[in-house]
Every structure is written in structure tokens, then in C-alpha cells.
């Protein structure tokens, strides 16, 4: 025998809806979840933006190696010769398995003479898309996939694209202020912008997340690995610093409460009420328009100041003797000094002898038919 159930009236449905929406509006931290959730618990949203960034940077790296053409421009003196045109420069020249310094200049890397004498400010836009080598590409894209997919799923592609592009530009402008006569690339600036935005988003929604310490350790580990790589040749750490600062500020401006797809738990008494009030107070503190305005003004001021300083050709290395060591660690393989290299070339018996005019070092190469740009690359290698 079926027990008749009381049909729901329209008033009951409205009352239930209002009570549910009120609990959500009063506090968005009704169920904490880890910052880096398991794939089965992540929000099912397309991540086409990060996928496009990864694919684009792989294509640009392949084009860079094709332009480098080590087998022809270096007379076969290459690493991984089986790759032919796409083989890498010797490890003594580029330890990251990548192209030569002259190729970085041709592809739009930052270079003091090109920026100051030729006023090629467009390099600020091209430098964030270059990588120093295959190792750098793998580490950078792996970190981008790990962080970028999460950020795009939580906050959508539009805001992440804005943070990514602006952080790359500001990072490049930071690098211009410390650039030397050695080509430098700024592909890490945009990634560090996402790291900075993730930290600001974590601060905004602190009580929404559990396992916050482990998340901070994970972010710190990824950032440290990418920053340490910046001490190797051609990778600019000042770009990473500028990208991080801009991303941190833009995170407070653009990133609001992340997308949640969980049901609120039942009422848990006074303890839950106290936690809800604490979370609401914290969220209100970070959601104040004053904070967003201040961060936006700071970001615009940094962007304008870096742009003006770069257009005036200001070089902060002249006022800071130790700043070069933020971007470089001197070894026997390369030097951190910003010197103009010049060599005396002598050709005999199908051999090229380059003698550095600064320190008297010389080296004999088993070829002679190379371009002037390639000769300058080898001269820099001899003098370092």
C-alpha cells in the first residue's frame, strides 16, 4: 500500500531555493578542497588556451632550430647530427641543446645593441616566445601545463590569457633594463606571471582550500627549478622577476572566486558558523574595490615606468655591479662580464684560428667558410 505524499507547493519550492542560495551566498567555503585536486575531482572544462600556447611554442622552437641550421652554418660541428638541419649547437656553446647566439638575435631575442642603437623595441614582444634549448622547452612547457591547466579551469581562458600576455611583456621590459651584449630570452616571464597570479588567488580564497602548506611547497618547488635554470646562458631571470610581480598584482585585479562544483554540507553547529564568519570576513577584505584599484594602479605604474626606462635606454647594470649575478653564475664555460668581444682571425690549411683580443685566448676550428655572425658567436665563446 502506497503512502500518499504531500505534493510540493510553489511556496515550498521557493523557500527551499532561497535557503539554498542564501547558504551559498553567505559563504563560498562550505567545502574546502585542495588547491591541486585529483583529475577525477577537477572541473570538466576545455583548456584550449594552454594547449594553444604549448603547441605554438613547440612550433616556434622548431622554426628556430630550422633557421639555426647547425649542419650548414657550423659545418657539421653539432650535437645530435642525425637531426640534420634541426641538430643542436655543441654543448660547450649551448648547454641547453639549442641554437646559437646569432640565431637568437635573428629570431627576436633581447640584445643591447639592437634595442639601444637600432631601437628594435618589437623584441619585447618576440622574446617571451623563444626558448634557449630543448631542455628549457621541456621544463618550461611542463610547468606551464601543470599550472596553466588548473588556472584556466578555475578562472577561464580570457583572464588567464590577459595575465599571460601582460606578464610576458612586463617581464621583457624588466629584462631590457638589465640586458647586456649577450642575447637573452624571456619565455619564463609569462609562466612566472601565472605563478604570481596563483599565489594572489590563493590569498583571496585562503579558506576555500585545504592542504595549503603542501600547495605552497609545490608552487615554491616549481618556481625554484625554473628560477635556477635562469642562471644558465641566454635565459633571463630579471624577466622572471618582472613577470612574477605583474602576475601577482593582476591576480588581485582579475581573479575572483574560482568555479566550484560541490554541494554544501549540512549545518555543523557553532563551529561551522564561526568558520563561515571568519571566511566571509577574509573574503570581504580581499574583495574590497580599494585593493583592486591599488593593485591596478601599481601594475600600470610598473608597466609605464619600465616602458619609459626601456625607451630611454637606461641600463641598471651600470649602477648595480652585483645585479648581473642574479641572471648569471660565472663558470669556466661562460663569463658574466658584459664585454664587447673582438677576435683576430687567421685562416690556414682549411683551419680557422680565432684569438681573443681581450685576454689572448685562442682556439682552432676545422673549417673556414662560415658567416660573419657565426664568427662572432665563436669569438664570444673563445673570449668567455
From TrEMBL:
GO biological process: proteolysis
UniProt xrefs under Pfam families: Rhomboid (PF01694)
CC annotations in GO: membrane
InterPro entries (alphabetical): Peptidase_S54_rhomboid-like (IPR002610), Peptidase_S54_rhomboid_dom (IPR022764), Rhomboid-like_sf (IPR035952)
Enzyme class: hydrolase
KW Nucleus (keyword) present: no
Positions of the Peptidase S54 rhomboid domain: 119-255
Subcellular location, record wording: Membrane
Keyword Transmembrane helix: yes
SUPFAM superfamilies: Rhomboid-like (SSF144091)
EC number(s) from the headed UniProt entry: 3.4.21.105
Transmembrane segments: 47-67, 129-151, 158-176, 182-203, 215-235, 241-260, 290-314
Catalytic activity annotation: Cleaves type-1 transmembrane domains using a catalytic dyad composed of serine and histidine that are contributed by different transmembrane domains
Keywords for the protein's UniProt record, in alphabetical order: Hydrolase, Membrane, Protease, Serine protease, Transmembrane, Transmembrane helix
Molecular functions (GO terms): serine-type endopeptidase activity
Membrane topology note: Multi-pass membrane protein
Family: Belongs to the peptidase S54 family.
Role summary: Serine protease involved in intramembrane proteolysis.
Name under which the protein is recorded: RHOMBOID-like protein
Organism: Thlaspi arvense (Field penny-cress)
Lineage, uppermost ranks: Eukaryota, Viridiplantae, Streptophyta, Embryophyta, Tracheophyta
Amino acid at each position: 500500500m502506497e503512502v500518499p505524499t504531500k505534493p510540493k507547493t510553489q511556496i515550498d519550492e521557493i523557500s527551499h531555493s532561497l535557503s539554498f542560495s542564501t547558504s551559498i551566498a553567505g559563504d563560498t567555503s562550505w567545502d574546502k578542497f585542495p588547491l591541486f585536486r585529483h583529475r577525477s575531482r577537477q572541473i570538466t572544462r576545455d583548456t584550449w588556451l594552454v594547449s594553444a600556447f604549448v603547441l605554438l611554442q613547440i612550433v616556434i622552437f622548431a622554426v628556430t632550430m630550422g633557421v639555426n641550421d647547425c649542419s650548414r652554418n657550423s659545418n657539421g660541428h653539432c650535437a645530435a647530427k642525425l637531426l640534420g638541419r634541426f641538430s643542436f649547437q655543441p654543448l660547450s656553446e649551448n648547454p641547453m641543446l639549442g641554437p646559437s647566439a646569432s640565431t637568437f638575435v635573428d629570431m627576436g631575442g633581447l640584445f643591447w645593441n639592437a634595442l639601444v642603437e637600432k631601437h628594435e623595441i618589437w623584441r619585447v614582444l618576440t622574446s617571451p616566445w623563444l626558448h634557449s634549448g630543448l631542455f628549457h622547452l621541456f621544463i618550461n612547457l611542463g610547468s606551464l601545463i601543470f599550472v596553466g591547466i588548473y588556472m584556466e579551469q578555475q578562472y577561464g581562458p580570457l583572464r588567464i590569457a590577459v595575465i599571460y600576455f601582460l606578464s610576458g611583456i612586463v617581464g621583457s621590459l624588466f629584462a631590457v633594463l638589465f640586458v647586456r651584449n649577450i642575447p637573452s630570452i624571456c619565455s619564463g616571464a609569462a609562466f612566472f606571471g601565472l605563478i604570481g597570479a596563483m599565489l594572489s588567488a590563493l590569498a583571496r580564497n585562503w579558506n576555500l582550500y585545504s592542504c595549503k602548506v603542501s600547495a605552497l611547497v609545490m608552487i615554491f618547488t616549481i618556481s625554484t627549478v625554473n628560477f635556477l635554470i635562469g642562471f644558465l646562458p641566454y635565459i633571463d631571470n630579471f624577466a622572471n622577476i618582472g613577470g612574477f610581480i605583474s602576475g601577482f598584482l593582476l591576480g588581485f585585479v582579475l581573479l575572483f572566486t574560482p568555479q566550484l562544483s560541490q554541494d554544501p554540507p549540512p549545518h555543523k553547529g557553532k563551529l561551522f558558523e564561526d568558520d563561515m564568519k571568519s571566511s566571509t570576513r577574509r573574503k570581504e577584505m580581499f574583495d574590497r574595490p580599494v585593493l583592486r584599484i591599488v593593485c591596478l594602479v601599481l601594475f600600470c605604474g610598473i608597466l609605464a615606468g619600465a616602458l619609459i626606462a626601456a625607451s630611454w635606454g637606461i641600463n641598471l647594470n651600470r649602477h648595480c655591479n652585483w645585479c648581473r649575478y642574479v641572471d648569471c653564475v660565472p663558470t669556466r664555460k661562460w663569463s658574466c662580464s658584459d664585454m664587447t668581444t673582438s677576435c683576430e682571425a687567421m685562416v690556414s690549411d682549411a683551419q680557422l684560428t680565432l684569438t681573443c683580443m681581450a685576454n689572448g685566448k685562442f682556439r682552432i676550428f676545422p673549417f673556414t667558410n662560415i658567416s660573419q655572425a657565426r664568427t662572432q658567436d665563436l669569438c664570444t665563446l673563445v673570449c668567455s
